[in-house]
Amino acid sequence: MRLLEKQEPASCPSPAARELGDLSAGGNFVRLSWVVSGVGTGPPEHRRCRKSIREPAWWMLVAHWAPEASGAESQLVTATVKVMAAQSWVLGRVKGVAGALRSAGETPAGPGLGLLLAGLGAGGSSGGGGCSLGLETKWQPSCESHVWPLESWLSTWPRQDSQGASRALVTAPQETVPFGDAVLSTWDTCIGSEVCEELWTPHSPHVDMGLDGVEIFTNASGSHHVLRKAHARVDLVTMATTKNGGIYLLANQKGCDGDRLYYDGCALIAMNGSIFAQGSQFSLDDVEVLTATLDLEDIRSYRAEISSRNLAASRVSPYPRVKVDFALSCHEDLLEPVSEPIEWKYHSPAEEISLGPACWLWDFLRRSRQAGFFLPLSGGVDSAATACLVYSMCHQVCEAVKRGNLEVLADVRTIVNQLSYTPQDPRELCGRVLTTCYMASENSSQETCDRARELAQQIGSHHIGLHIDPVVKALVGLFSLVTGASPRFAVHGGSDRENLALQNVQARVRMVIAYLFAQLSLWSRGAPGGLLVLGSANVDESLLGYLTKYDCSSADINPIGGISKTDLRAFVQLCVERFQLPALQSILAAPATAELEPLAHGRVSQTDEEDMGMTYAELSVYGRLRKVAKTGPYSMFCKLLDMWRDTCSPRQVADKVKCFFSKYSMNRHKMTTLTPAYHAESYSPDDNRFDLRPFLYNTRWPWQFRCIENQVLQLEGRQRQELDGVD
């Protein structure tokens, strides 16, 4: 039996995320093709959006349809329909789905492939043959509730027993159709469906389905990218088929969903704990097809060897069967060579960063209809990493065009406003779509200016160099004119308030200049369109609030806002080798600095880690403990006592935790204005989307800090007693 998996993008304007299954038994093999989504039904400019717009809450309906067929050809269509919970609907609206399924049976494009569902409100049709086999309700709480907080809207669909499938009225001539839990039974096998999150639940539907005799499991998934997540996704599928046997088809959506998430593909075909086909994780291609030829008898022999499974199977509550009057295989399949298992090839975290955010940037650029990006390039690691992501995007665009991707070619021609243009050199394309700008002040060093210019030359961006001192002096002069007071930097005898205000005005001026040039720089060159402003604040700095509100961290989008400094440095090092960018070496070697305070003898006198009072490595630890482990000050102190027992005393750990939480709570208000960032880490500090904790805290943490202090005193007293005992 041959299994063929086809993965396509979802349509943005439609509330339906579709899954089509086209099983055709003809010749010497059975072909099963999985289409994650079909062609969009909205305006032409939206039809190739790569992930459907998500509503605040939704259910999933899996609809099964068997069109009439003649001769040896039989088809089975399975559609996974996303339904807005906000819509007011009743079971009678299932008529629209049944009608759309019925009309899909005789489309010129082929059985099933013409299925166009615009949601449950789709118009019905009484024409065409075939019948509706059943409608399954699918909804599960999200794998990451901080990404899809739907539990307050919906409750999970309960499992029905064998007699519990309800029936709903549909269009004539068919009066009823099963509505609830069911599996499809052909002459030679049995097929069950899961949807996305159901694979991740403690007791997934495939467990009972497999014990009840289901041999093929399908999953139309909407799983977004997070660094190092592919391992978990593959392990779940292989473990599911290792324990239970069977064939598992996983098709995941691809592309940007219109906000911070990116869906990274990774379609696969697995059987009995082994992988037989692997799809790409990051790609600009809208359609991807996987094929594998597998023997159903291997499933049965595998399951027969697991005696404990057979005992469990005798106790399982059976699923309702919807019988389909054809087979997926035939006797001639004996001549069809079977596929061999393969080893899954994983990307390193640095490779994931080079590919995922770059694909996300491309989707944002082509869908926003802008002419490129504008990036304030400071000569530091963060802005350099952002520039490298755009350069990586240009590489992927050129590669896609070389492979013959006409849709990418059409998009890039629209972006550069040249219908005859064909990108061949990433550096040349980068010069068209990326404008970088070094905004110097009297506090900037020549070294950072040189590093920014050299990197811009090597990636080919259109680079601008300017000085912001006239604007800064005008603003400070205006303040002095109105108040009669002249603020000074700390090195010149000013207070901390004066020092901070003079730093912030420089940072905020850069944001204003960035948007001015993003809107008018192409106009000044006689080119149409505007530019998207890119931010370059990493997740660690955002977590601590080590940024100026409404400075260059305020932008249209931020491709590195969910990535830690440690991972960014690894990515930049990868770019040195992969893209041959030697300018990055000096950027990696230089200390991180904001360059907002006066230089000391022409040298930088300010470093980020000194200003923060902690290292970036420590910040990454704090972030995961605060967000993922849900720790407060005292819980974090207890965990770090063990983690850092070889390097820090209890007093030092206590001081570090107090320092972090004091600054975290003091700057928490800045998280309400963060630029939308690529979601790459589970501890993103963005309270608007991922972190719903308050942004107004008591910065003194009196009760928690008192508990920490009491614990430190007890530990220090115990250590003194132990030392006295040794003496």
TrEMBL record:
Keyword entries, A-Z: ATP-binding, Ligase, NAD, Nucleotide-binding
InterPro entries: C-N_Hydrolase, C-N_Hydrolase_sf, NAD/GMP_synthase, NAD_synthase, Rossmann-like_a/b/a_fold
GO cellular component, one term: cytoplasm
Pathway, per record: Cofactor biosynthesis; NAD(+) biosynthesis; NAD(+) from deamido-NAD(+) (L-Gln route): step 1/1
SUPFAM superfamilies named among the record's database cross-references: Adenine nucleotide alpha hydrolases-like, Carbon-nitrogen hydrolase
Transferase as UniProt keyword: no
BP GO terms, sorted: NAD+ biosynthetic process
Family: In the C-terminal section; belongs to the NAD synthetase family.
NCBIfam families: nadE
Subunit structure: Homohexamer.
Protein name: Glutamine-dependent NAD(+) synthetase
